[in-house]
Design brief:
Residues 129-227 bind DNA. The protein folds into two domains: 4-124, Rossmann fold (3-Layer(aba) Sandwich), CATH 3.40.50.2300; 132-225, Orthogonal Bundle (Arc Repressor Mutant, subunit A). 41% of the residues lie in helices and 21% in strands. The protein has helices at 12-24, 35-45, 61-70, 88-96, 109-123, 157-168, 176-185, 193-206, and strands spanning 4-8, 28-32, 49-53, 79-83, 101-104, 132-134, 137-140, 145-148, 151-153, 173-174, 215-218, 222-225. A five-stranded parallel beta sheet has the order 2-1-3-4-5, sandwiched between helices. The two termini are 33 Å apart. The model has no long low-confidence stretch (mean pLDDT 88).
């Protein structure tokens, strides 16, 4: 599944090489040459993955990694450090700063894509094409189909994305604002109550099989997808 990937790299040739390979793999690429520009893009778009060079002009990339991990909105944002610093203590420092993975230059495009897919599976499973199933409710992103106990369920595109997000983030409470950011995108301006409308539609579609009970309302907090009783 295509992802929005922010490439933070100050060397134009390397930035272009990475961007071309990501485009060929079907991803959408955002580019930044320093921490200030990267911070602005993260604030405006909230990418799915950040590829972050350590040695940047002015503020080093490792400081941006720490900032992203300290911010509630970006603390789960997958980060891959890409750097010429290949010593063990450098790798440890990068990982301790919050990077999910550490790739040393030079690297092959195939390895980079494999690392990206790996962090997406670990940190953002809704961005992969893996089917997910909970108590007989099965969602397949590849075919864009949903089944309850083997029977197909017809969902609209927003309800499909909402269910996919819920199923890949089970047992967590999500506020309406968080759902808007993650499902609609934080660049889309819609009322928070829009979430309630789509939750009702989703529950209605799952009601016949009894799977509507998996989508729980947490009073004063938001919604949770859970196989456990409330």
């Amino acid at each position: 599944m295509p992802a929005n990937i922010l490439v933070v790299e100050d060397e134009p040739a390397i930035q272009e090489l990475i961007a071309v390979n990501l485009h060929h793999a079907g991803h959408h690429v955002l580019r930044a040459s320093d921490v200030e520009e990267a911070t602005r893009l993260v604030r405006e778009t909230l990418p799915d993955v950040v590829l972050l060079d350590w040695m940047l002009p002015g503020v080093p990339g490792i400081q941006l990694a720490r900032r992203l991990r300290a911010d509630e909105r970006t603390r789960d944002l997958p980060i891959i450090m890409i750097t010429a610093r290949g010593e063990e203590h450098d790798k440890i420092a990068g990982l301790e700063a919050g990077a999910d993975d550490y790739l040393t230059k030079p690297f092959s495009p195939r390895e980079l894509l494999a690392r990206i897919n790996a962090v997406l599976r670990r940190r953002a499973p809704q961005m992969t094409d893996d089917a997910v199933e909970v108590e007989g409710l099965r969602l397949d992103p590849t075919t864009h189909r949903v089944f309850t106990d083997g029977k197909p369920v017809d969902l609209g595109p927003t309800e499909f994305r909402l269910l996919h997000f819920f199923m890949t983030h089970a047992e967590r409470v999500h506020s309406r604002t968080q759902l808007l950011d993650q499902v609609w995108g934080d660049h889309v301006f819609v009322e928070e109550r829009t979430v309630d409308v789509h939750i009702r539609r989703l529950r209605s579609s799952l009601e016949a099989s009894g799977h509507d009970r998996l989508i729980q309302t947490v009073r004063g907090a938001g919604y949770r997808f859970s196989a456990l009783s409330e």
